[in-house]
Amino acid sequence: MPSMDDFATWAPVLRLLRAAHADSLAVPGGHVTGQIGIHSWSLHLPRRMPPPGQAAQLSDVQDEYDAVQLVQAALTEAGVEDMSFVAEISPSGHTALDLFGPSPAVERSFGVHPGALVLVEDSVPEPWRRLPEPVPGAAPAPSVDLALLERTLRERIPDALAATEEEIAAAEARLGVTLPDELKVLYGVTRAKWEDFRDDDGWERVVDAVGFEPFSPDELTVADASSRPSRWQFGAMEAVVTPPDAVIQGLVGSPGWIVLGDTGGGDRVAVDLTPGPRGHTGQIIVLSHEDRIGADLRARSLTDLVVNGPEDGRRHRGAEPGAVVWVNRGSLSSVQAAAHPGLEALSIGVWEEQPISLAPVIGLPRLRTLRAYPGTLADPLEIAELTGLEFLELAPEEWRVLLDAGAVPRSLSAASVDVHGDRHPLPIVNLANELLALWNRPPIPRTTLVGGLGPLA
Predict the structure, then answer these.
(1) Disulfide engineering: 90 pairs with which of 94, 176, 306, 378, CB 3.0-4.6 Å?
(2) Coil, strand, or helix at residue 213?
(3) To the nearest 5 percent, what fractions of the chain are helix, strand and coil?
(4) What global pTM score does this model have?
């Protein structure tokens, strides 16, 4: 097998990149970058367009495919998921190749530059640590009618096989929760196993009868926060907001969200045992696969869903105050306008006026996330006065100011280096490793290989 640390393993890829970028490589500081993983790769190589009416063929990229496969074989042999690289190639073919391996303290990125740096091991954004608030007086909806639910289901699927009491008890023991009575009625009619039916038509009758694709008792899961993972860069810009008129708590997940099925489109259907202030215990909710937080109401009860069908699709999340705010040329026009005691996450984007002072948000009790586009801050050292930050995303220049002044906030759990344009990855990796070192976290490993590609043909 080829070795990952053997220059010859990378030479075919480098030759292709050199041929495609000969002009830019010839100027001082010229370099090429890429990322190759076991299952995918990203290389800045031109692709030949197929003739009209013809799909792209493997033969169109055979050289690229063969070159990448050599590297992928080496990664597989080494047990490495993916590798980013930067290469400087002289006109004579002399090449310096820097490989950047994965670190357990760095989230995977979409490009050659490092993803978010996890400064505190196993840390997650604040919304992923939130548990449901108690709602005194929460009760099942008036529409709950166990006899009507059972009768309707038996009429629609008379040939279904019921779950046993032992199967239901085993599910409760595994989940650590008592299943609501409506769910027990459902399983008293059908144990929701596809193999119980002779053909797809039988299973379709179950789906139509219930209003979604139900799971069997041994497939039930809990939709807690860990079931909805998110990268730090995205999760840090979310907030748990549950207004007084909310039907559903605006959580990432809850130990009281019991997933009992699927919509057929990848969205999870759950029974909600921890409703919002205006909700009902046992209401049916949907967790969209496109959202990282919150849920939508499907029906006030399982009885309601089976007998009357789903609600009209309106979202039941209430009016959200400005816990997450974007300041840029297309949103709010000042940090002053964003500043209020409930502010949790602030993103400063593209800005064409004078750099911004952070003075209006200093001292805010809940501010935990700050992201700032390059060059937008009047004084990066003001960040040192934001004592509650857990996530900070800055450009390399702003990070340099904080590092040189010893002013990187020690409250951080994660950080990100915001890189724009075709910047050389090596200084960015070095900067990231400086930040990781402040928390004694594993650095991004770097391997330098030197070799020759011969003159360009």
Answers:
(1) 94
(2) strand
(3) 30, 20, 50
(4) 0.90
